[in-house]
Specification:
Strand content of chain B: 15-25%
Enzyme class (chain B): translocase
Organism (chain B): Parablautia intestinalis
Shape of chain A: globular
Number of helices of chain B: 20
Distance between the termini of chain B: 28 Å
Keywords (chain B): ATP-binding, Cadmium, Cell membrane, Hydrolase, Membrane, Metal-binding, Nucleotide-binding, Translocase, Transmembrane, Transmembrane helix
Largest interface: A-B, 20 and 27 residues
Structural class of chain A: alpha+beta
Catalytic activity (chain B): Cd(2+)(in) + ATP + H2O = Cd(2+)(out) + ADP + phosphate + H(+)
Structural class of chain B: alpha+beta
CATH architecture of chain A: 2-Layer Sandwich
Subcellular location (chain B): Cell membrane
Helix content of chain B: 40-55%
Number of domains of chain A: 1
CATH architecture of the domain at 303-329 and 445-562 in chain B: 3-Layer(aba) Sandwich
Strand content of chain A: 25-35%
Order of helices and strands of chain A: EHEEHE
CATH topology of the domain at 303-329 and 445-562 in chain B: Rossmann fold
Number of helices of chain A: 2
Oligomer: heterodimer
Chain lengths: 72, 622
């Protein structure tokens, strides 16, 4: 399943790259893309695990860039 | 400016006023009377905290999260270092300058993002549905196929459909870059994303929102960012190593020389701080993708969709371009080009042929009837016999008429004059007497010749045409529009083989593009370095298989994409070279104690801002 999320207050391009890398490492994520320019995040993950994945994504992002909020 | 930026601006102003006050006091000698340096330290700490408290807070928080090497941490270390060596005013100034740079950078990025997304603003927000005579606004997502929607003047068309009532002019500029509006009336198909002109339209929806043209295009544009160019990947990799290397060098610089050479730690720590300030690769990480994004934006303004920055990069290196003939360089419509009567009048020959072909629905027959232009009285036509692969024998006004190719003429023993013209030739004979020939061919698109010329002007070396047509027909088209190489009489499968052969001839970085109308040539589109398809206003197969889509099927725009791609790449390269050389220079000067904090901060945020402004030029390329 592929889903898109809007991001708020994503202020630095380097952080976006770091977030993307961290999300890709989460178990069950097939692919992820964090676009600094579009302020959007696309996550392609396994259907049955998606809720867990999202919890993990929020955690990881808070670690990398605490100012950035994911609009779920 | 958003709220956050405004708040930052206020903090900058307050800190600046306080700091300026301190500087004035310092010049007037008022601060010299303070005996204890710790008082001085506290006095300078006030503006420092006003401007930099969030940096210190973020640095501390990020360290607790295990994110050590980020800008905040580096700025904190650098300014603490300045405090440590009692350069109080420098510490405040550097932090102030850094925040001004950051603010400017965030403003510039926000602004450029805005202008790009404004341009991509083709997404409809609502659809009008008539319920019990009242119009209600609903989300386009909720409209089902077959519903009737009402589009008022000036509104954006929310869904693809067919007009059932009303007439209007439709502005397709957002999708095709075409400024002349298209007329739409009952029975016409209209596509989402366009803007309705002056009339109200009632439209029967033919596709759900997620399958509609506008949803497809938006998805393409949004995904464009995920296909990264080589330059972008290089920068990402570079950034990964750059920060740790500079930081480790800074540590080494702080401790190794004083231990070996003796001397004071203070001096070397200051130099190390300069390293830390420059260690963020932000200028590169932002400006390179921003440049590509701008280039893709500039192309879509012209109605050209580029599916990723890697393709934009490839287009810049394109030297060979291969065209499919029918539908790309020619219209795919057959027309009577020449009428060559022999011993009778033109009208007579044409009338005979039109009557003879009266029952056929072959495109060639249709083009003959169209050229004749008058009503055909089929009562004049009698018994007909089709001769496979040759033509037909038919009774017209009781006389035996033969219409067909050379084979038919030879087999029936007609003394015909072979015709050398390009195109499909239909020979005619009546009562065993040769009447003449009619030449039919595809019409060349207006502007095809100019398109080829403009491609040559922007540096495309070789233009090749592939077609299943006869040699003569193909050569004639090639001559007329200035194609360099022709491969005719190809079967559909041969096109892939030909393109592969041509790909082998490419040298080094040279790239090959294939331009097709998307029908039957999806494998070729994928095989070529760059597949360029005619969008035909929403032909799904073409849009999916290609890397670049010409929304209005105008081959003339290929030259424009090449120009945009080259300029974008130039801008990106300028940014990389500029940012790297300024950083390298300041690092070098810093190591020898020739650069100060100011220069270091400039090498960080100043360079970012300049690079962002430069990247934005990509959006303005025409």
């Amino acid at each position: 399943m592929k889903r898109k999320f809007k991001l708020e207050d994503l202020d630095c391009a380097n952080c976006a790259a770091k977030m993307e890398e961290a999300i890709k490492k989460i178990d069950g994520v097939n692919d992820a893309n964090v676009s600094f320019l579009a302020q959007k995040m696309t996550i392609d993950g396994q259907d049955e695990k998606f809720d867990e994945i999202m919890k993990e994504v929020v955690k990881v992002c808070a670690k990398v860039e605490p100012d950035c909020r994911i609009l779920l | 400016m958003n709220k956050k930026q405004k708040k930052m601006l206020v903090r900058i102003i307050i800190a600046f006023v306080l700091f300026a006050g301190l500087l004035v006091c310092g010049h007037m000698g008022l601060l010299e009377s303070i005996e204890h340096t710790w008082i001085l330290f506290v006095v300078y700490l006030i503006p420092y905290l006003v401007i930099g408290y969030d940096i210190i807070f973020k640095a501390a928080r990020n360290i607790s999260h295990g994110q050590v090497f980020d800008e905040n941490f580096l700025m904190m270390i650098a300014t603490f270092g300045a405090f440590g060596v009692r350069e109080y005013s420098e510490a405040v100034a550097v932090m102030l300058f850094y925040q001004v740079g950051e603010l400017f950078q965030s403003y510039a990025v926000g602004k450029s993002r805005q202008s790009i997304s404004d341009m991509m603003d083709i997404c409809p927000e609502y659809a009008n549905i008539e319920v019990d005579g009242l119009l209600t606004r609903v989300d386009p997502d909720d409209v089902e196929i077959g519903s009737i929607i009402v589009i008022k003047p000036g509104e954006r068309i929310p869904l693809d459909g067919v007009v059932v009532e009303g007439e209007s002019l439709i502005d397709t500029a957002a999708l095709t870059g075409e400024s002349v509006p298209r007329r739409a009336s009952k029975g016409d198909e209209i596509i989402s994303g366009c803007v309705n002109g002056s009339g109200t339209l009632k439209v029967r929806v033919s596709k759900e929102f997620e399958d509609s043209t506008v949803a497809k295009i938006l998805e393409l544009v949004e995904n464009a960012g995920s296909k990264k160019a080589k330059v972008e990947n290089f920068i990402t990799k570079f950034a990964k190593y750059y920060t740790p290397v500079v930081t480790i060098s800074a540590v080494a610089l702080a401790f190794v020389p004083p231990l070996i050479l003796g001397g004071s730690f203070g001096e070397w720590i200051q130099r190390a701080c300069i390293f830390l300030v420059i260690s963020c690769p932000c200028a590169l990480v932002i400006s390179v993708p921003l440049g590509f994004f701008g280039g893709i934006g500039a192309s879509s303004k012209l109605g050209i969709l580029v599916k990723g920055s890697n393709y934009l990069e490839a287009v810049a290196e394109m030297t060979t371009i291969v065209f499919d003939k029918t539908g790309t360089l020619t219209k795919g419509e057959f027309k009577v080009q020449e009428i060559l009567p022999e011993g009778c009048g033109r009208e007579e020959l044409l009338e005979m042929a039109a009557l003879g072909e009266g029952y056929s629905n072959h495109p060639i027959a249709a083009s003959i009837r169209e050229a004749y232009g008058k009503n055909i009285n089929m009562n004049r036509v009698g018994q007909a016999e089709e001769i496979a692969g040759e033509g037909i024998r038919i009774l017209v006004d009781g006389r035996e008429v033969l219409l067909g190719n050379e084979k038919l003429m030879t087999n029936k023993g007609i003394a015909y004059i072979p015709c050398e013209s390009a195109g499909t030739v239909v020979y005619g004979a009546c009562e065993e007497r040769y009447m003449g020939a009619i030449v039919i061919s595809d019409t060349i698109k207006e502007g095809a010749k100019k398109a080829i010329q403009s491609m040559k002007q922007v540096g495309v070396k070789k233009c090749v045409m592939l077609t299943g047509d006869r040699q003569q027909a193909a050569r004639a088209v090639a001559r007329e529009i200035g194609i360099d190489q022709v491969h005719a009489e190809l079967l559909p499968g041969d096109k892939v083989t030909k393109v592969e052969e041509l790909l082998k001839e490419q040298q080094g970085k040279e790239k090959l593009a294939f331009v097709g109308d998307g029908i039957n040539d999806a494998p070729v589109l994928t095989r070529a370095d760059i597949g360029i398809a005619m969008g035909s206003m929403g032909s799904d197969a073409a849009i999916e298989a290609a890397d670049v889509v010409l929304m209005d099927d105008d081959v003339g725009k290929i030259a424009a994409v090449v120009k945009i791609a080259r300029k974008t790449l130039r801008i990106v390269k300028q940014n990389i070279i500029f940012a790297l050389s300024v950083k390298a220079l300041v690092l070098l000067l810093g190591a020898f104690g020739l650069a100060n904090m100011w220069e270091a901060v400039f090498a960080d945020v100043g360079v970012s801002v300049i690079a962002i402004l430069n990247a934005m030029r990509a959006l303005k390329i025409k």
